[in-house]
Amino acid sequence: MAAEAAFTIGARASCSDGSCGEVRRLIIDPATDTVTHLVIQPGRRQEAGRLVPVHLVDTAAGEIRLRCTLAQFDQLDYAEEFDLVEGPMPDSGDFVGGGLEYGTGNTPYSAVGGGGVGPISEHARTIREDVVPVGETEVGPGDRVHAVDGEIGRVQGFLVNPGDDRVTHVLLQEGHLWGRKEVAIPISAVTGVDAGVRVNLTKEQVGDLPPAK
Prior knowledge:
Distance between the termini: 16 Å
Largest sheet: 7 strands, mixed
Number of strands: 17
Strand content: 35-45%
Structural class: mainly beta
Number of helices: 2
Helix content: under 10%
Order of helices and strands: EEEEEEEHEEEEEEEEEEH
């Protein structure tokens, strides 16, 4: 049986002809516990990430390799949608800036793409929304993992069976409660992945799990 593949947030990704960015989010189908897409952010930070179907993904020595060229990667669906909205800039929130500079290049701004856009108010701002296929959910950087008796760390990624793309374990990010480099929680212990990952184990039970290989 082939070794499990590690899909980790922050891993570098490359196409057959060069680097294409890093993994920013993982999208799973909670009904089947399978990874369906990786969101890879190009090195050009002003550009939106791409939704990469899992059938295009290989892993090796902690790196993600895609079965496509850079040109083919650029044709994949965008993983974010952007809209220009009127109103003052909020004190905080998920936005990437304001004005027309964010409507140039390849970034998929629905408010500025396609032509015919009139003058933009100086109070217009750009907001971003992640694209997640219907019926699926995402895990991103900083998402928390919760035991039945409290938070235990943050998600680093998943171990996946390469034969059917089913998640076998959730990986905890370094810096969790137990100080080990990696802790792998069996998917059978996961009860939900909305607003973080929830498991039906106590902190003590998670601490007793063997280290990830």
